[in-house]
Amino acid sequence: MTKKMTITSIQKTKGVRPLVMITAYDALFASLLQESSDILLVGDSLNMSFAGRADTLSATMDQMIYHTNAVCMGAKNSFVICDMPFGSYTTKETALLNAIRVFQETPADCVKIEGGADKAHIVEYLTSSGIAVCGHIGLLPQSVRSEGGYKVKGKTPEEEAQLLKDAQAIEKAGAFCIVIEGVKAEVATEVAKAVKVPVVGIGAGSGVDGQVLVFSDMLGLFEAFTPKFVKKYLDGAALVKDAIKNYSDEVKSREFPQEIHTY
Ligand code: KIV
Predict the structure, then answer these.
(1) CA distances to 2, 60, 87, 123, 148 from 92, in Å
(2) Over the stretch 124-158, which tens digit does the pLDDT of each residue have?
(3) Residues 175 and 259 in one domain
(4) Mind telling me the catalytic residues?
(5) 114 in contact with ligand 1, CB cutoff 6 A
(6) What pLDDT is recorded for position 225?
(7) 139 in the same domain as 120
(8) Quick check: is 189 in a domain?
(9) Atom 8, ligand 1: residue with shortest CA distance
(10) Is the pLDDT of residue 20 over 70?
């Protein structure tokens, strides 16, 4: 069994080797994913691939706590991040109450909140209250409705300057790590260089301090759409459908169960 990462060991990877982060939503997959990853993220993306919704916005604290507990049970040796869902950190007081729920009701190691300089006061309030925070800047999935879609960031000098400001503000506020999503590669690389904490990218190129992917995307299980940044390491949907078709055929033909499956 590999040693569980800590905030210190995560931070020490910067400039040494890339961090491997992957989402997990349940104990079964968490137990499979833990072996080759440094960090498991219980992302609110579970609202899409697990709960079948069109975006992440209707995920709730209760849902996040339920799934975080499941992941922690399945991967007892993994560093686990619990995403704070939309609406759970609108003020610093609300954020603290909800983050305390995460720490008291689950064994998660930290929470993640979306936002940059505009959320630095919340990051500061949480970290000074003993809650470890991973930031999330760039394309923010929780802003999909207000922005009218998923918009890649860092396309203009103004956006680049804002991203640098965002990363530096949440680092100063105490975030120990930052996820950067949907950002032009050269800009994400500059952001990673501008802060001391690890910057883990998703759709942000290879010049950052690590990568995160949604497990159901990279295993080819989520079929609704595939973002450009996803590499499918398995054709999971086809494999599962094939297996179920075989099972169905064998049940219908009475080929299953055989003697060895029978008491
Ligand atoms: O919810 C999630 O899975 C995330 C990743 C996209 C980083 O926040």
Answers:
(1) 36, 18, 12, 8, 26
(2) 999 999 999 999 999 999 999 999 999 999 999 99
(3) no
(4) 181
(5) no
(6) 84
(7) yes
(8) yes
(9) 43
(10) yes
